[in-house]
Amino acid sequence: MPRISNRASELGTENAFVVLGEVGQLQAEGKSIVSFCIGQPDFPTPENIQQAAVDAIRAGHHGYTPSPGIPALREAVASFFSRTRKVQIDPEDVVCGCGGKPFIGYSILSTTDYGAGNEVIYPNPGFPIYRSQIIANGAVPVELPLREGRGFAFDLDELRARVNEKTRLLILCSPGNPTGGILSKEDLEEVGRIVAPYENLWIYSDEVYSGLVYDGEFESIAAVDGMLERTIIADSASKTYAMTGWRIGYSANKKLAPAFTRWVTNTDSCPAHPNQYAVVEALNGSQDKALHMRDVFLERRGRIVDGLNAIDGFECQLPGGAFYVWPNITEACKLVGAEDSEELRKRLLYEAGVAVLADIHFGTRVEGEGQHIRFSYASSFEDIDEGLSRISDFMKKNKR
Prior knowledge:
With about 400 residues, the protein is an alpha/beta fold. The chain has helices at about 5-10, 15-30, 45-60, 70-85, 100-110, 130-135, 155-160, 185-195, 255-265, 275-285, 290-310, 330-335, 340-350, 380-400; strands at about 35, 95, 120-125, 140-145, 155, 165-175, 200-205, 230-235, 250, 325, 355, 355-360, 375.
């Protein structure tokens, strides 16, 4: 039997989908499970967006397109980025792809050389695909710990200590997954000062939750003086417009756009043709539905944070954005005799019927920061209330 490459054998994954498989199996067995494990809006895609795709199909828009996207979409994204990031983005700077995720790999491939010792700094805890793509593409992963005491932003001195002449890419994610933490304008300005002396250092700014900021305005490092040229702005329609399955993402960087276009040609050829027209409507059309979803998420945020903080052993900060909470459950583990967050996660799933993710699904545990689990509050108020009730009952029943 031919062997599988080490690269494929050791490739990481996104454990939200693994746990979702566990949930599906339990539900197939007749178990009642309240799931908080997947980061997917529970709203339907707005009807005007759906109709734009239907109209596109009826008009015959179902063949190949240019690899970076149809002109109308690149123009819509450029206008959207210029308006929301307060920078000037031209349509030729924009490349569209099959979701936002491919641009993580494209960015690493375009800024590092395999096996050359090029380093990529990424947030920990963070989206697990960052690390898996760094390793798979032959670069060196460098963890940048997020600190609970800073609202799950990183310590700027810790960033300063990690940046060096080998650093080729710095990955930022704000609002963040899994913590919901936000980098302030002041933090971003200081990041700009830290990276400025390193002429070969790029920034990948993962901004897929840019439409879900609850306190103040969204801030992008692209707007910091001197940062636009070296910043890869990455966003998608998935979260803001409840379009996860439509798989349309977009990035912008003037110098890297031609390279990204070639990567799209080499991988997916082009994004799905009618779906591109749907996102044109999402970006150019009425924003009322998107704003309504944001308002509902804001209300759910308060519901789940208050509910978690009312349970013995749970300490939950109020996240600034996205639709995740990242409670510290160090004391909860002690109260029920769980060795760590992963054991508590499994017990909540199999004993309480509540599905969450553990901190180890998002990287290594940060020393001195305790144990955490992630809840996605892209769930109904009824599910939030029922899930919290089940967890509270579990803690009371198993408290030592």
